[in-house]
## 1
Amino acid sequence: MNIVSAGDIEKYAYCPLSWWLSKKHKSVYDEGIKKHKETGKELQEIKRKEEKLKLYEKYVLFISISATIVALFGLSFLYGKMEETWNVFFVVLAFLWLYNSLFFLYKAGKSSILRARYEKVILLSSVGAIMIASFSVIFSLPPNPDIGRFAEILALLWVISANLLFYRTLNISEEIIEKKIKYAPINGKIEYIGNSREGKEMESKKYGLRGKPDYIIKVGDEYIPVEQKSMEANHPRFSHVMQVTAYCMIIEDIYGKPPPYGIIKYSNRQFKIPYEERWKNIVMKIRKNMLRDMEKGIAHRNHNNARKCATCARREHCPERLA
Ligand code: SF4
């Protein structure tokens, strides 16, 4: 099956001759290319910071838990043994907590969907069990004020580091929110950046289409393609609707789930384009006509719209232009 690019679908939908001329005169969209590169850079920066944030959050959690354990350890040496009954109580509680983790682990093992959902519960539950168990063990040791004081100072330093790191995560979060709001909903994840080193071309064998959307955001379990245009527009252009629909088709094939819509972002506003059967049919028709013209080795204007020619990027080289 011949694979056609979504970018070519866009050009052909605008005017078949524009698509044909674009093969000979490639540099007409310099401004657009520059803008796409800038977007790619900014998105990569956001992605990098989000990864850093996740790592910092893990460190904060780890340091805080360690500090709490060390602090308890110190307290036990300062104040000595607790009563036997309390010791038994904490041991039983730790076992119950551990049983709770095992129960969720068993449930998660039954289904891969549940595994992801229970992951955090298992982690928190296990940490809880470990803490309670440590609590009961360290409080059964004889008092030693020197070790106790040393542990308390250590825990204090640990807490200070956790707070500094937490402060840094807050700053990064703010930076991310400010930049990300331009591109994606805050609960959305930037899944793919077309204009980046990792942004490989995506291909659908099922539809015979390929392409690199500017970026893809993941909201819940939906993958939404976003196409950015440097121009202003008060309504979505037909050729852009075709391009974003082609990306939706590629995503449907690759991720095995159709996106509910694609997004076209103009410099003044953005539009959600529902992913519909009627648009898919037109994309497939454009693809068929394009392959036919490729075989013929020529394409012609298919409209009488002089305004289209007046704003066409290839009018300078066009033998059939109307304006
Ligand atoms: S100038 Fe008009 S006819 Fe020529 S490629 Fe552009 S839109 Fe098509």
## 2
Amino acid sequence: MSARPLFVVAGVGNGSGTGAATARVFSKAGYRVALIARNADHLKRTAEEINAAGGEAAAFPVPSYAYGDVTSVFDQIQSHQWASGGRTELRVALFNAGAGVWKPFLDVTEADVALITETNITAAFAFSRAALLAFKQNEVDANGKRGTLLFTGATASIRGNVTTSAFAAGKFALRSLSQSLNKEFGKQNIHVAHSIIDGGILTDLSLSRRQGDPEWKNNGDVRLDPESIGKSYLYLANQDRSAWTWELDLRPAHEKW
Ligand SMILES: NC(=O)c1ccc[n+]([C@@H]2O[C@H](COP(=O)([O-])OP(=O)(O)OC[C@H]3O[C@@H](n4cnc5c(N)ncnc54)[C@H](OP(=O)(O)O)[C@@H]3O)[C@@H](O)[C@H]2O)c1
């Protein structure tokens, strides 16, 4: 019997953003879903919601995005007994966690630098290593790939600005990691892709930062819909290796920036 494909995502927040929306998209496409995040209650709720919709999701809370915590959660995922039984193979991994610090440079503290480094860089290295080791065990699929490793970037992945010295340093690092991995692991038929999200994503947090602005909430032309980002990630996962994307750039149609 062929193995069920597994999708794993790190960074699921409260379930209203890109991480959870992408998990729903991959679940509907037939993947088992492993959810990694720090808030166990939020995570459990998102997993239950996917299961209630007919999918198969499991929650894997982490105490932090420290290297060891990310590595050990992958061990738990690999040994997890899925309810419907049978074999499963990790086929798609999304590193979606991102810590943001938006401050003038002279206000950035050592703790801010540590947070940015741990979440955006250290965790990404641990996540990538675990995912790549799992992909290397796979045979190539119908698209000629052993697996797809995806990263969520931001405007700050390619542009520093007045309050983004810390955030942009983290996102630049993530982008360069993805490019190096694309070059190194492409030869092993593992697809690594980075996505620049150049605009605000409609999440509970983003909306609260805009005081619930109904125009921003309801006008799909001015902000990104998390589900639409998830569909683009599924598109990347479905690309075959004769013409695959390293970097995608996603933006709403009526951008002003
Ligand atoms: N929201 C936007 O407007 C926007 C725009 C461009 C790019 N992005 C990027 O898109 C990705 C998805 O973001 P999203 O807004 O759609 O939300 P999301 O997918 O719901 O969650 C993003 C994840 O980042 C983690 N995170 C957030 N703040 C953190 C902190 N201070 N320290 C450690 N981890 C933190 C959270 O981890 P836990 O799950 O462990 O809580 C969260 O799940 C992120 O990488 C973000 O940088 C967001």
